[in-house]
Every structure is written in C-alpha cells, then in structure tokens.
Design brief:
Layout lengths: L13 E6 L4 E4 L2 E3 L6 H12 L3 E6 L10 E4 L3 H12 L4 E4 L6 E3 L17 E3 L3 H8 L5 E8 L3 H11 L4 E6 L11 E8 L5 E7 H15 L2
Parallel strand pairs: 1-4, 1-6, 4-5, 6-9, 9-10
Antiparallel strand pairs: 2-3, 7-8, 10-11, 11-12
Helix pairs in contact: 1-5
The chain binds cytidine-5'-triphosphate and calcium ion.
C-alpha cells in the first residue's frame, strides 16, 4: 500500500537494501542460484520507504517493485557488489537481505554447452559483500545482515555478527517450509551487541519488516 507513516524518522536518510538470490552464469542460458525469492528484502525496502527514507533497492529478484521504490536490477554477486560499493559512500544504512551465492562457476562458457555423459563444474568463491562493508564502514553507517541457517541458528548468527562487523544480524531459519526462503512469512531473531537476542515470532514479512525498521530507527546514528 502506497502510504507513508505519519512520522518520518528516516526522512533524508539513504538506505540501501539488497534482495533476492544472485544468479551465477554457467553459459548463456544456464545459471546456479538458490531458493531466495526477494520477498524479505522487498518488504524491508517498502517499510523503510514508508518511514521516509530514500531507498535504493539492489535486487536480483524477479519480483515486481512498487514504482515509488528506486530499484537497480542485478544478476550476479559480482554485479551486486559493484553496485553496492557505488552506492555505499553516502548511505546511512545497508540491509543485506540478498542471498548472495557463495560460489560462481570458475569459467563462463560463451556458447550453450552441449550435453555429454557427465559434467563436472569448477567453482570459485564469490566476494563477501557484507564482510567488505564491515571493513569499509564509517562510524555513522549502520550495517544489517542476515544469517541464513538450517542448524545452530543463533551460534552461527552470532559468529556472523562479530566476523562481519555488522550492527545487527537477522537470524533466519531457512530449513523449514513455513518460513524463510520463498514464502510470505518469516520468524527471525535479532542479534546485536547492545541487547539480548529478540525473537520476532512467525508473521508476514511486512510485519517482520516493521520490527526490523523500528530497530534501525532506534539505532540510527
Ligand atoms: N553475504 C554477502 N556476500 C556473500 C555471502 C553472503 O554479502 N558472498 C551476506 C548476506 O547477504 C547476508 C550475510 O552475508 O546478509 C550472511 O549470509 P549467509 O549466507 O548466511 O552466510 P555466509 O557468510 O555466506 O556463510 P555460510 O553460507 O557459510 O553460512
Ligand atoms: Ca552463504
């Protein structure tokens, strides 16, 4: 719904949001990716916009976006990283909701590959965008990441909070059918250094976004 909140605490603030699963090309018609739909990132972008922010949504998702959201489409992790870096300097906050592929094919075939009896692909590690932002960020910039896990959710998420120098990690169980990737609902736990973990029980991704952006408003420098 195109309706801004009555108070606009993020007015004049630039917020980058990444969304969707990156696609890593194998050949002109094939790629590897993951189950992320982009719904969580897109919901966060809309909620930040409602609070008055200048939102830039960098999205690898196929989802439509409301026309009032500035969207930069990207495909691969490398392309996402370049676009995020281009937009980062004057951003007040970044929310890395994208499921960035950890690997990309070591080589991209120029022509459509012909079928053989077996196929072996080699992969190279992709750049870790959130980690780089954690190294680059200025004291006034707020960095929010996700931790997509199927086991030991909180332990792994805490490690990501520290290792990547994020201000908030949103721990996201992606191993269940009713939440996480490619569905309308989610349950998450917010992990920051200032307070004990806060679990936001199962609800729509729009409602989850309200809680996350509330946290951002309270913790914006
Ligand atoms: N991320 C990133 N660049 C990557 C991989 C992940 O910026 N190449 C970001 C994601 O957008 C997310 C956070 O890092 O905000 C955590 O992603 P996740 O996949 O949960 O963790 P990884 O650090 O990739 O570790 P692993 O997949 O091994 O759990
Ligand atoms: Ca990963």
């Amino acid at each position: 719904m195109r309706e801004k909140s009555e108070s606009l605490p993020l007015k004049g603030r630039k917020i980058l949001v990444t969304a969707g699963g990156t696609k890593e090309r194998i050949d002109p018609v094939r790629y590897i990716s993951n189950d992320s739909s982009g719904k969580m990132g897109h919901a966060l972008a809309v909620e930040a916009w409602k609070r008055g922010a200048d939102v830039v949504l960098i999205s690898a998702s196929q989802l439509d976006t409301p026309d009032y959201i500035t969207r930069i489409p990207v495909e691969s992790a490398e392309e996402m990283q370049k676009t995020v870096f281009d937009e980062f300097d004057d951003a007040d906050a970044v929310i890395m909701a994208a499921a960035v592929s950890d690997y990309a094919p070591a080589t991209v075939e120029k022509q459509k590959m012909k079928k053989k009896d077996t196929l072996t692909l080699s992969f190279k590690k992709n750049p870790d965008i959130l980690r780089s932002l954690g190294e680059m960020k200025k004291t006034n910039q707020v960095l929010i990441g996700f931790a997509a896990e199927t086991e030991d959710l909180i332990q792994y998420a805490e490690k990501k909070l520290n290792d990547k120098n994020a201000d908030l990690i949103i721990a996201n169980d992606v191993g269940k059918k009713d939440r996480g990737f490619n569905v309308d609902e989610n349950e998450v736990t917010l992990l920051s250094r200032q307070s004990e973990p806060v679990t936001i029980s199962l609800r729509s991704k729009s409602e989850i976004s309200v809680e996350v952006i509330d946290w951002l408003v309270k913790n914006m420098n």
